[in-house]
Amino acid sequence: MADAKVIPFDDDRARGNVQRSAGQRSGRRRSAAGGGRRDRAEPAAVRAAGAADGREAVVPGQASGVEPPAVRASGPGPAEGPGAGGGWEQRLASGLAFLRRRVTGEYEVDEFGYDRELTDQVLMTLLRPLYEKYFRVEVKGVENIPAQGGALVVANHSGTLPLDGLMMQVAVHDNHPAQRHLRLLAADLVFVLPVVNELARKAGHTLACAEDAERLLRRGEVVGVMPEGFKGIGKPFGDRYKLQRFGRGGFVSTALRAGVPIVPCSIVGAEEIYPMIGNAKTVARVLGLPYFPVTPTFPWLGPLGAVPLPTKWTIQFGEPIATDGYPAEAAEDPMLMFNLTDQVREQIQHTLYKLLVQRRSVFF
Question: Angle of helix 334-358 relative to helix 250-258, nearest 10 degrees?
Answer without folding.
Answer: 110
